[in-house]
Amino acid sequence: MNKIINQYLLFNFSKTIGNSILIFLSLGILINLFEEIEFFKSLNQPFSLPFILSLSYVPTLIVELLPFIIFLASMFYFLNIKNNKDLLSIKIFGYSNLKITFIVALFAFLFGLFILVAVNPVTSALVKYYEVEKAKHAKDVDHLISVNKNGVWIKEIDDLGYKIINAEKLEKDNLKKISVYVFNNKNKIIQRIEAEQAEIFENPWGMKEVHVYDLQNNNKFYYENYKFETNKVLEKINSLYRNLNTLSFIDLVKDYRQLNEKGYSKKLLNEQIHKFLSLPFFLFLMVILASIFTIGSAKNGQNFYYIVLSILISIVIFYFKDLSIALGQTGKISLVLSVWMPIIAVGLFCSIGVIQINEK
């Protein structure tokens, strides 16, 4: 009998989660679609492109909002089984409020692990596709920048053609072990530049120990110092290093050392890893928080009050989470602590609230 009851609880809860995610996904795609259509309206692109880009971008937002989606889904679920007397029927078979809560919360924890292992690699690939495709069509973007296991890659477009720049890694304001391939408008390579390093904080770049190969005239030159004309891209490269959404949890763990060698800050890498690791615990606690404001209430007439209160609390948690991250990024507290501090705060509140649940 316990197995049947557990299956009943989890089946209905998973269905509620699925419906909630679909609702938020649909709303997200609809809202983002208007933004993409506005972006592409003067670029003579088919409607399918904005739609595909919306489908690529929104799933990442859903993962970021997942704790709050789970919270609202749990609120609806617990209120539903309470109001239709399912909760009372289940308790006849020896299930306490606390046991029901922890069964559902454990499922949310496992769901969070599933998101990390199976869903996050897909959403990371989608958002990477989104950024690349969006950059190709942006009028004010003349750089395409990527970082992978082969180093930093930059494609810079100008009126005369384009340049492809490859560097082994970024160290502060310097690119190391640089190769530059210069193409004309006919996609023919006309020059190759090899340099040990380049200071990229200002234009032109200051290159050192440079070999320049003039492929049109078949000449070769060496310079100890060389000025390489380019647009200022340091800020663009740094913004890419700060945006870790294109890297999945598995990639971060597996390629941690390589990513650090390529220029990713250890602090940022650790922050992102702990963000991922905290997700299952966050989902677990949000289920317990929802149960405190629903099945922890003795009177059905108080449901509306607790719903409004819990939504307000979820908003407070959301902004507290942002504040905590901001404190970590400004060095007021450690980045790792800034990730876990909202979860610790919710956990302390829930540890008091479960006493109230168990007494009902």
Strand content: 15-25%
Number of helices in the DSSP assignment? 11
Low-pLDDT regions: none
User: What does the main sheet amount to?
Assistant: 7 strands, antiparallel
Going by helix content, strand content and strand pairing, the class is alpha+beta
- What is the total number of structural domains? 2
Q: What's the total number of strands?
A: 7
Distance between the termini: 23 Å
> Which strands sit side by side, in order, in the main sheet?
1-2-3-4-5-6-7
CA radius of gyration: 26 Å
Helix content percent band = 55-70%
Could you give the order of the helices and strands?
HHHHHEEEEEEEHHHHHH
- Overall pLDDT metric: 82
List the helices and strands and how they pair.
Elements: H1 2-40, H2 48-64, H3 66-83, H4 86-92, H5 97-137, E1 143-148, E2 151-158, E3 161-171, E4 174-184, E5 189-199, E6 205-214, E7 219-228, H6 234-242, H7 249-254, H8 256-261, H9 266-292, H10 303-329, H11 335-359
Antiparallel strand pairs: 1-2, 2-3, 3-4, 4-5, 5-6, 6-7
Structure description:
The chain is of the alpha+beta class and 360 residues long. It has two domains: 2-138 and 258-359, no CATH class; 143-230, no CATH class. The chain is built from eleven helices and seven strands. A seven-stranded antiparallel β-sheet has the order 1-2-3-4-5-6-7. α1 packs across α2 (48-64), α1 (2-40) packs parallel to α5 and α9 (266-292) runs parallel beside α11. The longest helix has 41 residues, at 97-137. It is elongated and about 90 Å long. It starts with a helix and ends with a helix.
Brief digest:
With 360 residues, the chain is α+β, with helices and mostly antiparallel strands.
